[in-house]
């Protein structure tokens, strides 16, 4: 049995989940959908590495599993909070290296979209990109598998992307201060946030396609420079 550890730390509320592979076929141990074994949240009030490492220990303890059983570590690498992404990626890299596991980089918008893929309709996942813009990706397929392009859009760009009948989801929906794009609908707020459960499901599908990395290849993908970096670049120009 091979276990998959999923880490989601792109926003204010991190989560972790442990999966086991269901069957092994020609595509390897991650060919089929994984079975959720256990999920946990870090201790309230704690953030960063001080919260993630103990949460992994608690997750394994609750599942009755050992670190060496984990063959794959999945983590959201962006977009999202610069600090949250750095901490999540660093934790995933260190753990995977220690146990000899492969890693999978997951787009945060994929995990967000998958929470609403059960409705069988096009989904637009949104995250706040600051500066009056949104990170956005539109998914036609039922199962988001890392194929949708992440874009940074203002209000006009979002109007052009969204089509009638689309479902808008993700924390970025809260930033739509005016009316929603014509013909679109907002998902329930309770299911906007990305979770480790969906991170693991996307990771298993990507691993079956051979899209794994060694720990040293894993890096955050912020999709844009921070405001501080932009200011520094302006001062240098």
UniProtKB/TrEMBL annotation:
Residues 50-146 form the Gcp-like domain. Keywords: Acyltransferase, Iron, Metal-binding, Transferase, tRNA processing. One of its GO terms (molecular function) is metal ion binding. It holds the Pfam family TsaD. Gene3D superfamilies: 3.30.420.40. The keyword tRNA processing applies. One of its GO terms (cellular component) is cytosol. One of its GO terms (biological process) is tRNA threonylcarbamoyladenosine modification. It is an enzyme of class 2 (transferase). It catalyses: L-threonylcarbamoyladenylate + adenosine(37) in tRNA = N(6)-L-threonylcarbamoyladenosine(37) in tRNA + AMP + H(+). Its EC number is 2.3.1.234. This is N(6)-L-threonylcarbamoyladenine synthase. It comes from Pseudobythopirellula maris.
């Amino acid at each position: 049995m091979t276990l998959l550890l999923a880490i989601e730390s792109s926003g204010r509320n991190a989560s972790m989940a442990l999966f086991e592979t269901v069957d092994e076929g020609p595509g390897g141990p991650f060919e089929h959908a994984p079975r959720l074994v256990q999920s946990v949240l870090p201790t309230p009030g704690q953030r960063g590495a001080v919260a993630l490492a103990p949460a992994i220990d608690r997750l394994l303890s609750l599942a009755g599993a050992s670190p060496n059983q984990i063959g794959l570590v999945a983590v959201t690498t962006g977009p999202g909070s610069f600090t949250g992404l750095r901490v999540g990626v660093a934790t995933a890299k260190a753990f995977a290296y220690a146990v000899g596991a492969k890693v999978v980089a997951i787009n945060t918008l994929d995990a967000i979209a998958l929470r609403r893929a059960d409705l069988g309709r096009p989904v637009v996942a949104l995250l706040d990109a600051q500066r009056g813009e949104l990170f956005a990706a539109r998914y036609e397929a039922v199962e988001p598998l890392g194929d949708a392009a992440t874009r940074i859009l203002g209000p006009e760009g979002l109007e052009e992307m969204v089509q009638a009948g689309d479902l808008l989801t993700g924390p970025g929906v809260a930033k739509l201060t005016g009316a929603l794009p014509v013909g679109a609908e907002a998902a329930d707020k309770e299911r906007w946030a990305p979770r480790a459960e969906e991170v693991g499901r996307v990771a298993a599908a990507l691993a079956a396609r051979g899209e794994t990395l060694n720990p040293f290849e894993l890096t955050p993908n912020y999709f844009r420079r921070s405001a501080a970096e932009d200011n520094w670049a302006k001062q240098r120009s």
